[in-house]
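Progress report, Aim 2. The chain analyzed during this reporting quarter is listed below.
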Amino acid sequence: MYSEFLGDWLRRFPRDQLLFLRNEDYKLAQKEHMDAVFKFLGMRALSPSEWNTVMAMPPRNKNSDKYEKMWPQSRALLQEFYAPFNRKLADLLQDDRYLWQTP
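Predicted structure tokens for the chain:
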């Protein structure tokens, strides 16, 4: 339900002062996303040795493998409930990836 709050942020801050990243995309391209964050924040680029250190760090928030897979009925119920909020978010960000149409 991010869209319920995002409108307020977008009314108060210019869009170029906000960076939106999806965790699913970050997991697929961690270095590229971290580069984007550093650039967005005006930070210097990391050296190759610094990148090696960062990328060698173990994940600290990985818990999904501790739980059973979601039931298809539960997923369908949640997708139906969140669909209007996701549509509003995708429209606000002008990015259909925020419709989360793929599992």
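The chain has one domain: 1-58+71-98. Helices lie at 3-12, 23-28, 30-40, 48-56, 72-93. These observations will guide the mutagenesis work planned for the next reporting period.
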